[in-house]
Amino acid sequence: VVREVNEMGGIEATLAEVFGGAGFHVVDPQVLRGKLAPKPAFEMLDLSSGEGRQIAQKSDADYVVIAKGTAQLAYHADLAGAGMQSGQGNVVARLVRVRDGKVVGSTTQHAAEVHIDADTARLNAINSAARLAAETLTRKLSD
Predict the structure, then answer these.
(1) 11 — alpha (psi -120 to 50), left (phi > 0) or beta?
(2) Residue 129 CB-density burial (10 A; 0-12 exposed, 13-18 middle, 19+ buried)
(3) What confidence tens digit (pLDDT) does each residue in 61-88 have?
(4) 2, 6, 52, 140: which has the highest count of C-beta atoms within 10 A?
(5) How far is CA 75 from CA 33, 114, 120, in A?
């Protein structure tokens, strides 16, 4: 499956912020591949636990988070007259223990954000959903 990348890395940044703030060391997979570069305009989607574990093993990580998100605009008649846009974001995430591949936790989150700019509404919504997902998964680690 191929998808267009248009959320500017917001999901990854939000997950890293929440997990880092909770005391976890976060490693960027691009660093492990030996290069840091701008995110591509198109990328292959592979949400397998196996690939996530392979990347994490290179960094001696204990856990890997595998996440997928979508963002879109939703029409609301009461917002249309005011020139506001409603962004809708959905994020599905799994927390996988590297040593045995066990899924320790998973979550599906939705968030809505309103903004005058359509792209900002979508980005804010997907980032809010990613924050909810990260907070849920960090709680599962501390339980």
Answers:
(1) alpha
(2) buried
(3) 788 888 888 888 886 666 556 678 899 9
(4) 52
(5) 41, 11, 15
End-to-end CA distance of the chain: 35
Whole-number pLDDT of residue 44: 46
Flag whether the pTM goes above 0.90. no
Give the integer Cα–Cα distance in Å for 138 and 118: 30
Low-confidence ranges of the chain (pLDDT < 50): 1-4, 36, 41-44
How far is it, in rounded angstroms, from Cα 124 to Cα 27?
23
- Note whether 68 and 92 are within 8 A (CB): yes
Distances (CA, A) of 32 to 21, 29, 54, 104: 22, 5, 11, 23
Q: Is 111 helix (H, G, I), strand (E, B) or coil?
A: strand
